[in-house]
Amino acid sequence: MLIDELVSVPKNYQFLLALVFAVAEINENPAILPNASLGFHILNSYYLTKITYKATLNLLSTQQRFLPNFNCDIKNHPIAVIGGHVCETSIDIATILSIYNIPQFTFGSFSQVQGRGMLFPSLYQMVPDEVYQYKGVVRLLQHFRWTWIGLVATDDDNGDQFLQTVVPLLAQNRICYSFILKTPNRTFMDYFINLLLKFQTQYPILTESKANAYFVYGTPPTLHLLNMLLSAAEKVSAPLPGKVWIVTSHWDFESLSVQAVWPIETFHGALSFAVHSNQPPGFQKFLEIIRPSWVGGDGFIQDFWEQAFSCSMKMSNEHEESKTICTGEEKLESLPGVLFEMTMTGHSYNVYNAVYAVAHALHNIRIATSKHRRLLGGARQEIHIIQPWQLHHFLRNIYFNNSAGDIIHFNENGELVEGFDVINWVTFPNGSLIRLKVGGLDPEAPQGQELTLSDDHIVWHRHFNQVLPLSLCSDNCRPGYSKKKREGEKFCCYDCVPCPERMVSEQNDMDACNKCPEDFYPSYRQDQCNPKVVSYLSYKESLGTILAILAICFAMVTAFVLQTFMKHQNTPIVKANNRSLSYILLIALLLCFLCSLLFIGQPGKMTCLLQQTSFGITFCVALSSVLAKTITVVLAFMATKPGSMMRKWMGERLAHSIVFSCSLIQTCICTFWLNTSPPFPDKDMHSLNEKIIMKCNEGSAAMFYCVMIYLGFLAIISLTVAFFARKLPDSFNEAKFITFSMLVFCSVWLSFVPTYLSTKGKSMVAVEIFSILASTTGLLGFIFFPKCYIIILRPEMNKKEQLLKQKK
């Protein structure tokens, strides 16, 4: 087994300890590989390709003899390889191991490689593909509504591939980048000054950007170098304001020794997608007993101990005389987090699970082989005869629970089916740090539910005073406004403009304002749609109640007048000017008052059919009766002349014919109207902004105007005839009263037209009801109240002698 990049960085020593801990657990567990023990061999690649190749070929050679492809040592035959920590090392190892079909487990992130399945068929990834992390970062940016970010990537092929993947992904999700800063992959300290001078020219990009969220890609060495460059630049230039650093699972805070601990306060409050980890029982106690004298075969512990505690294990080296002597009793828990952590990190957890995956695969092979041998009656097959390529079938189908309770299995692409933890890094000036798990990323969750976050548990950089940072090119457009793109800038940079009239935007940063549904209307601030109130003239409101009471009262007065006339039907004043016409007119006026009630209340199918037609017909009967009365007065005067031919036209037949024929025409118009395009209940959504007007739609506007024009025609004819007959001698001068009543009638309806057309909703209905009541009251008052005055209050004038006296 191969573990790479171990003690060059003290923190990576935990990878080795996780391997040792897992192997020890398995060897002590009688349920896994009974009567067999696992062994391991560890080599360091130091991040160098040539050393990685050499270390890999060493595994394929006989120990102590570098003869690749020649291994006669059966006991040290490698069955699987675990490595590496970074993608480049993993690819270097896989290039050789894929020839031999030896299973390889990468415990660090592995970049997307075109045709990986064919190039490296024996590769198993303990970390899901990096693309899942990029999508998780996009979800995180959307969660906090950060649309203006900075991108930092290593200046190499992996960094270029990262940018090629991330930039389109950000654009698809309406997120822009303020800048792209490329950092060196790794360097020697000889070149650090040159790098710092170059970085100094780029440093203002970080300090002056409005973006508060930076998405960073890079391996631990490059991130360590970035920290060094930032710390050095801050001492020369202005300090970097607080930012939110968002990183992938590559990220880790590490240092080479206690003396080389660089300040990490810049990254306080950073968020990272870390490989999911759990704490196997007993691992922390295992770390607490680690000492340099613990294992004689550990060739790495001395180097680790000296770097971690800045002391020397030996006094033979003159250069180390200035260092303190290691006692060997130093405790790992006393080290700052940048050097060593007592909890199992995500990469160490992957090493732990990789060892168990190999052990379970070997265990399953032994079970399958023993069953097969028993069936054949043969001897027991020993585990050392198992070839590495035989593990692939069992690894692809492996499924088990580890000691921490997590399920371990691989998908069809050889990737561990696992999510990521969202880690919030809390740092301290002495190099200590705390990993706060504040959420998770599940690649197998439904669309839009992959990311879970506990916002209240996140610790932000001290610059933000624990207030959610904003990372925007432009301030949010509040509801009631929409975005207007700035010319020549990215779509995340915009101005806010108010919504047009009758349009709203209900959320922040709306690209465009929307119209409200028909039954809603925009609020005063145009930030929401409020439901419209249904409006109609109701009996429950004061205006409807008053008009209804007036209509009923006038109807009762009309009924009283009719009753009075019928009671005194044989008196001269009732007989004068056609008694039957007076009855018809009073009944028509009574119905006119009552038909106004049809306009009050919620319009229904039947009320809409009766409203205009009953109004048109009853008013037509009333006007026809008035016209007949007027014509009767004129004919009566003309008949009194000697030799007049008008005597034969006198009588009730002519009056009834006028009323019948005039009313018949209106009835035919209304009947045709009802048969062709009758009125119906309708909703007017647009006339009033905040209300839905319930009304009766005329159906055919032409027929409605025909009814009204015909009534106007009758009114004008009646007024004209009455006007010319107003001075004719008459017992009670009825022509004069008819003239006054028709003047009132015509005045009311002439003023009705502009008023009706200029009002909306229930006011329009109220205007029509008022016009009906006013015009009908005018007819009733001027024609019948003088006669009622004489009948009731001056009965002495209601005599034949008085009638003859008035004629003389």
Residue ranges: pLDDT <50 for 5 or more in a row? 379-384
CATH class descriptor of the largest domain: Mainly Alpha
Q: What oligomerization state is this entry in?
A: single chain
Average pLDDT: 83
Alpha carbon gap, first and last residue: 143 Å
Main sheet overview: 8 strands, mixed
Gyration radius, in Å: 50 Å
What strand line-up does the widest sheet have? 5-4-6-7-8-13-14-15
Q: State the helical fraction.
A: 40-55%
Q: Going by CATH, what is the homologous superfamily of the largest domain?
A: Rhodopsin 7-helix transmembrane proteins
Structural class category = alpha/beta
Instruction: Give the number of domains.
Output: 4
Second CATH tier, the architecture of the largest domain: Up-down Bundle
Describe the model:
Strands 5-4-6-7-8-13-14-15 form an 8-stranded mixed β-sheet, sandwiched between helices. A 3-stranded parallel β-sheet has the order 1-2-3, sandwiched between helices. Strand 16 (481-485) and strand 17 form a beta hairpin. The protein is of the alpha/beta class and 808 residues long. Helix 15 (579-595) packs antiparallel against helix 20 (762-793) and helix 19 (734-758) runs antiparallel to helix 20. Mean pLDDT is 83; it is low at 379-384. The chain contains 21 helices and 24 strands. It has 4 domains: 10-127 and 278-408, Rossmann fold (3-Layer(aba) Sandwich); 133-248 and 442-464, Response regulator (Rossmann fold, 3-Layer(aba) Sandwich); 481-531, no CATH class; 542-807, Rhodopsin 7-helix transmembrane proteins (Rhopdopsin 7-helix transmembrane proteins). The longest helix is centred in the last third of the chain and has 35 residues, at 605-639. The protein is 44% helix and 12% strand.
